Every structure is written in structure tokens, then in C-alpha cells.
User: Fold this.
Amino acid sequence: MTGPLSGLRINIDSAGLKRRVDELALISEAPAPVVTRVLFSEADMRGREYVRTAAREAGLALREDAVGNIFARWEGSEPGLPAVGSGSHTDAIPNAGRYDGVVGVLGAFESLAALKRAGFKPRRSLEVVMFTAEEPTRFGLGCLGSRLMAGTISVERARALRDPEGRTLDDLRAAAGYSGSLESVRLPKGYYHSFVELHIEQGPILEERKVPIGIVEHIAGPSSYRVTLHGEGGHAGAVLMKVRHDAMLAGAEIALAVERAALESGSPDTVGTVGVFRIEPGAVNSVPFRAYLEIDLRDARLDSRAKALADIRGAADRACARRGIRMEFEEINADPPAEGDPRTIAIAEEVCSGLGLRSLRMVSRAYHDSLFMARVSPTTMIFIPCLNGWSHRPEEFATTEHIASGAEVLAHTMAQLAV
Ligand code: GLV
Ligand code: MN
Ligand code: MN
Assistant:
């Protein structure tokens, strides 16, 4: 490998790319600067339309599958060959920022547009995917589109998903105009020759070290759990403390156990979060009779994640036994980590050195659709720095220069992979 293909001059339209990122950010369920686009909400539907228009403007041909993954393709001279893929997501959790996922979709469109302007002629087709529901907000399960594409979730399980209002995936996708069979979402074997996702780092390392590009060698394994606690309600003035079965207090003990288990797992990479905690009836003068928690637990290593989970389960069992609470503890997902593909990583690295951009091999602590693309294709990710490592908050920020560098590296890497 020799870095960028000789003679290939890429000019990323950084102002145009920034304008698009800013325009998409205005399509939100919440006022700016907050971005919220939950799967199949009205904002997500308008965001999808924005993505289609941007893909067409980049000269790409569109198709959509039955779960709403959007594919934007530039046919190569040998269209029967496995394609080189890229892409990310444009859904956004409540109270998010504008760069998570979006940079990897709009940035990849600009990478392909720049390759076209440069006169590049791909042998393999180049394809950008906007994955449906990378974020778990609606169904509690992240990476729904890429899981179905990779076949790592069964169609039966996907059909059984319910949102907090009890609506099914089939109801919601039908309302959004997606009617094909979910079975058809799975990619044929060998569909992608390679896959490279561009994303903000969502951590502080690149910024701290003043390195413009990260190349992902390993994606940490996410897991999440749903805990429902059934206690006994009653009047907050009349039920004496000694006879209470307060579901919220059992939940509070579990939340603290999650923190403790992550801190004491033996691995600095274990992280545990209770990001959803609802109680019923939710009245100040009523003892909570039910609590509902969602736990997010991750690690780059499965053994320390398993130890943390066992500690959480033990603490939850003890708290519920002591408080007379019935507990349902369900696994939502427990995914293994993914390894980046050494050849794809080496190509991206050589592209960076050829462009005079420093790069760093990294672990992604966040999950991405690449976690699932890595199961069916050689995969890596290109990270760019973001301010203070902030993400999943409105203050998320990446400079136009860093975004453009990421798109340039992506363009050259895809070109290398496509010849
Ligand atoms: C993705 O958004 C994640 O939670 O890592
Ligand atoms: Mn995210
Ligand atoms: Mn993301």
C-alpha cells in the first residue's frame, strides 16, 4: 500500500458539508441547539427526506430496505463485485448534539461527491448507508438496522420489540411507509468487500493529544438490561416505614450497585449507567409500587463485564429480598466486542501519513453500526476529535476542519479499497 492513490486530488467542500450538518440539526423534536430525532418520529421522517436529497445531490442512487435503512450507491465498473461501504446514523437521542452519526452520513456523501469531482472511477461500487435506529431510544435496543442487516437479531425478536407506548416495529415501520418483509433486510453473504464508518470520537483522547484522526482497532462490547421491580404502593402519610415495600428504593440500591460494580470490576474500561429510571404512580404523596430501570454496561473485555453483571445481579437480589420486592431482570442485549480489520486499518493509516495527517489507533468505547458490520465485513472506523470529548449532549462540537479531514481520509480510504 502506498497511501493515497497517486494523482488523486480530493477537494472536500468543507463549507458545504458544514452547511448540511447545520441544516440537518434544525430538523429536531426540540428547539436548537438541542437535537432530538427518535426513530420514525416526525423529525426522523423529515431527517430521512433531508438525507435522500443530500444523497441525490451527491449523484448517488437510492434504495431503502424494509426497516428503513437508506442505501446511496455509486455503481462501480464491476457492479457484481462486493461493494465498499460507509455510513452511520442520523437518529439522535433526546437532548443530543448535531454531529453524532450525522458526520458519518453527510461526510460520506461528500467523500463520494469529492471522488466524483476528482474524476475517480471505482471498480467496486461505493455505498453509503444511513442505518435505522442506531440509538436505542424507541425500542431500548441500539443498532436495530445494522443488527438486522448482519443477521445478529432474529426477525421474531425484532417483531416482538415494543416501544414505551406498546407499538411494535411492524406498526411503526408501516406508518413510516416501510412495508417489505423484515427477512429481506439481511445482507447476502459477502455483500460488502469492506466497511469504513466516519464518526466523532465521543471521547477526549484525540483532542488531548492534538491528533486529527483516530483509526479504530477495537469496539467495546455493549450490553443492556431491563429491570422491573414490583413493590407495594400506598399513602405516603399513612404507611409506616417498617411495613413498606418501596420499589423505588430497591431501584436506587440497584443503581448504586451498578456504579459500584463498574468501579470494582478490575478493568478501567468497565462503565455502567442507569439512564432510564421510571416509577409509578409518580405522585409525591404515594409510595412507589413499581420501578423500571434500564442498565447500560460495557467493557472492552467480556470477563470484566461479566463480573460486573454478576455483582449487580447479586446486589439486586439481596436488595429485593430485604425489601420484599419482586424483580424481573431481563437482558436486552449482550454483544461481544468487535475487532477492526488489520488490512483496512493499515490502508487508512497509510492514507493519513500520505496526507500528512497524524493518526492514532484507538478503542471505541461507544458502540456503532460498525460493531455489526464487522461481523459480516472487514471493517474499521475513522474518528475525528470533538470538543472536550462531549457527546450525547447539545454542546457536542467538531470543527469544520476536522470534519473535512475525516471526509478526506474516508474518500481516499474508500478509493483504495474500491480499485
Ligand atoms: C451509541 O450511541 C452508544 O450509546 O454508544
Ligand atoms: Mn449516539
Ligand atoms: Mn453515533
